[in-house]
Amino acid sequence: MTGRPGPLIELSNVTKTIGDGVLTTLVRQIDLRIEPGEFVAVMGPSGSGKSSLLYLLGLLDVPTEGRVIVEGRDTEHLSEAERARIRLSTLGFVFQFHFLLPEFSALTNVMLPMRALARLGEAEMRSRAEALLGTLGLAGHMHKLPGQLSGGQRQRVAIARALANEPKVLLADEPTGNLDSASSEQVLGIFRKLVDETGRAIVMVTHDAELGARADRLVRIVDGRIVSGNEAKAV
Amino acid sequence: MKLVLDIAVTHVLSRVRQTLVGLMGIAMGVGFSVMMAALMEGSQEDFVTQLVDSLPHITVSDERRNPPRQPAEDAFDMVVYSGLRTPTIRPGIKNPMAISASLENWLDGAVAPSVQSRAVIRYAGRDTAASIIGIDPKREIKVSKLATQIREGTIDSLYRSSNAIIIGDKLATKIGARVGNTINLASGTGQTLSATVVALFHSGNSMADETQAYTLIKTAQILAGQTGLVNALRIRVRDIMSAREAASRVEAQTGYKSVSWQESNEDLLNAFQIRNFIMYAVVGAILLVASFGTYNIISTITHEKTRDIAILKSLGFTSATIRQIFLAEALMIGVAGMIAGWVLGYILCLGLGQVEFKSPFQDATSLPLLYTPKHYILAGLVALAASAIAGYLPARKAAAVHPVEIIRGAS
Asked: Residue A101 and residue B11: Cβ atoms within 8 Å?
């Protein structure tokens, strides 16, 4: 008998507060499970805590209260290096701004996470990076510097970089925020394909209702609280 | 590690101008430090060499370090002496040949007896006081460089006539004497004799060249009015640094006061120690100032790269890796600066070596420089350490960057 696989990431009663004197609560008492093969959109007004939620899911930030469990492993007592290792191997990030290293070519940028993880040989890393860039329609731009690429191309390089170590969860913070509609459509198409064809989970923060509607699940957040969509649907 | 180096190299090479400025700072620091150390230690070594060469390494004189006990002290408990006079006639060293032979049994060097005396030299109506040193030429060549310092004649010319004398070239000029002239000597004890100038020497030390003269031992004994007198043993040791230890042993064995070249120049050697301390302090300060350039560059890069650091951390790079990247950048600048500094230092030394330096006390000579790997290694190590510290501080700051704060700010 095989049971249903557990959630990839689980937030349990998570609260994040910042500030020394005057405290500001970014998210409060969040319960959320991200299952394999889910495309989750997180929506809410500005300052509602969408990005903070994403950073907590991605172990970039630590909760003030509650627990973050990644693949069944409680991350509360993990060291900074152990959290970094999980980010490197299990999670991938795409931000509104591409954040590519400007001195490195598209290919080198994509190879960076693979080289940091050091699981593959140089040739294997290179061929995987080339394949990823090819899949994302950047075969002819591999050796260009970020400054020589268009906004849409840069964001696709950033997606390729996020996928370099074959993460189980892709976390995207307003990934189409700086793109025109054609490029946005292209990025969304890539995400859809990733979920449908590779079974990866994607959590995408957006305030674009149209984009949100195209996800499998829509999580609405207001004033740091999830108001709807915190129940995963069967995938 | 390769990834760390790749990122570091890319960062450094993408800021060519800044990197060159930092590199030049370190290079100049190392270069001038090497030059200064070569000059300071070179002049010191040159001075010591001249000092050691011009004097015997150890001089055993017919004196005692402490006054000998008087017979009355042995006979009575309550004896007080006052107004003791030293004998007018120098006692000399008893059995000097036996002592010399005994010392040569264990001493790694040579021993030569001599007679130290003073006299007034008179020639062509000119008088001048001089120090007359009676020597045995065959032994003297083993303990001093007199033979090589002879400009006219030879040291063996002393055997040519009964009262032969070798005088310093400046002394000769002063009194107007030449080789072959006969000069008159008058000692403090009233002895006078005529001596033939058979050779001139030039040691390079003005004082010696103007006030010293060499005769055979026998001639000096006649001048001192004491037949058989030998009042000094001149010793040359193979290892000049062992002179102090050897002098103590000689003194313990013979009972006569034995003074090594280190003891007779104690104040000077102490002054050298202070001079060296000052030199290394200045060299350290130069390199410290140079390291500020590196600090500035790495600080600028880390400041400019804050966003990249944040994204690298969000990808899964650890703080330690970030720290290594910026430390590697500082060390790259340090290593490149160090190598450039070595080349610069060597060129500066070569250039300084061409400069002629004139002293009223010595012959015209080029600036003495000491070429030793020690200076290069020392300056290089200090430069690397300074670069590492200069890089570590901003690297630590970079590693402490919280990616969320930066990503929020940039989004």
From this structure: no
Length of chain B: 411
3-state helix, strand, coil in chain B (%, to 5): 60, 20, 25
Burial of residue A225, with CB atoms counted within 10 A of its CB: 0-12 exposed, 13-18 middle, 19 or more buried: middle
Q: Which residues contact B68 (CB under 8 A, 6 or more apart)?
A: none
**Distance (Å) from the alpha carbon of B16 to chain A's nearest alpha carbon:** 13
Q: Which residues of A touch B404 (CB under 8 A)?
A: 55, 60-61
Q: How far is the first Cα of chain A from the last one, in angstroms, to the nearest whole number? A: 19
- Identify whether the C-beta of residue A115 lies closer than 8 Å to the C-beta of residue A164: no
Per residue of chain A (235 residues), give pLDDT as tens. 445 568 889 999 999 998 887 888 889 999 999 999 899 999 998 888 888 999 999 998 999 999 999 998 999 889 988 999 999 999 998 888 878 988 899 999 999 999 988 888 889 999 999 998 988 888 889 999 999 998 889 988 998 999 899 899 999 988 888 777 887 888 888 888 888 888 889 999 988 888 888 888 999 999 989 888 766 554 4
Report residue A143 as tokens. Answer: 């050796």
Query: For the whole prediction, is pTM greater than 0.90?
Result: no
> Which residues in chain B are contacts of A51 at CB distance < 8 A?
408, 411
Could you say which of B310, B311, B411 has the minimum Cβ distance to residue A173?
B411
Whether the Cβ atoms of residue B383 and residue B291 lie closer than 8 Å to each other: yes
Domains and CATH numbers, chain A: 9-228 (3.40.50.300)
C-alpha distance from residue B219 to each of A54, B61, B98, B330 (Å): 106, 19, 21, 72
Chain A residues closer than 8 Å to B310 by CB = 99
Q: How far is A119 from chain B (nearest CA, A)?
A: 13
Distance from the first to the final alpha carbon of chain B: 31
Contact A97 B403 (CB under 8 A): no
